[in-house]
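Supplementary Methods S3. Complex input for the pyridoxal-5'-phosphate-bound model.
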Amino acid sequence: MIYVDNNATTAVAPEVRDVMLPFFNELYYNPSSMYPPAQNVAHEVKKARQTIAQCLDIEDPSEILFTSCASESNNAAIFGSAAANSSRKHIITTSVEHPAVLEVCKEMERRGYRVTYLKVNKLGELDMREYVRALDEDTLIVSIMHANNETGVVFPVEDLARIAKETDPKIIFHTDATQTMTKLPLNYQSGLFDLVSFSGHKFHAPKGVGGLYIRKGTRIRPFLIGGHQENGRRAGTENVAYIVGMAEAMKLAAKTHAADSERIRKMRARFENTLLERIPYIEINGRGAARMPNTSNIAVHCIEGEAILYQLSEAGICASSGSACTSGSLESSHVLKAMNVPFTAMHGSTRFSFSRYNTEEEIAYITDVFPKIVERLRNMSPYWDKQNQRPIVRN
Ligand code: PLP
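Predicted complex, serialized as structure tokens:
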């Protein structure tokens, strides 16, 4: 199988697996226990926190909170901020966030909060004027993702955070950096970011471990209570093996990032240019906006994404129609809807997301197979003019 769905999850790096293994057998102790072997395990958790802080250029490792995933981090960030700052009742987010932010915001609305969902343009970009207008004296938190998981479009979170802080330093700025962690930098020492969510399985650590950066001084209530772990900020025995694995994955990424991202960027450019040459009536969603180098979201007019995915999978290619959370349902993507992608193309959108493990040979295979799949499906489509090889225009 050729795996090009790395925004859904990534393969665990062999180096990461190797450092984790001892923690399942020899080093299984609870880091809260008093005897020396357990204290050694506690020391490994401490070291992992230091490694991550070092990789991200964070001065104080205690600003890193380990969680189970980015969904938990996002929930903790928003619910925890609201619980600790009850006088403010307004939240700003965007219409294209991951459901782990959007659904939390909807829940906050049910609890009486006002939520502004910022719109995006056709390229998936925000309107800064709309953002500035939305900030007010009641704004508790701004939660805006660093890069979109479906299109790879990157938001200028540093500018957005600066504007929020200049408007009112008490506004909490949270960014969901799940797709960008280890791939795009954030300046933590700027003091602009109060909360940053991430997840290990997006950068070659296993599923089930994530983190929340909490800038010192940020008022936030624990989301999970009932234990003293993580300095009283999250109850629950630490997932030691996975925490150690996530730190190793970050270290690995820090070493290889520059070369990987350049290679992936070139590979993606070849991929997109070849498809644009070989397939008529396709659009690359978000092309023209600042984009992650590894993501390619391709809208194919006149056919269904589900059919494309099925045929890709028959050809041994794992891609997706959007986020893993929406695939499996026939609901069209809220992100592409927000970008006003034409109806005839929205349903035929396919996301390819690459990692350092993808090769040129794989790209050549996909760019060979994909046009044939599109041609076959279009020739069966009631919306496609087979004779003239173009969409049927109905008045
Ligand atoms: N936020 C974004 C932007 C994501 O892409 C994802 C996963 O796809 C998540 C949050 C949720 O991550 P997790 O599966 O670790 O909860």
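The first strand starts at residue 2 and ends at 3. The chain is about 40% helix and 15% strand.
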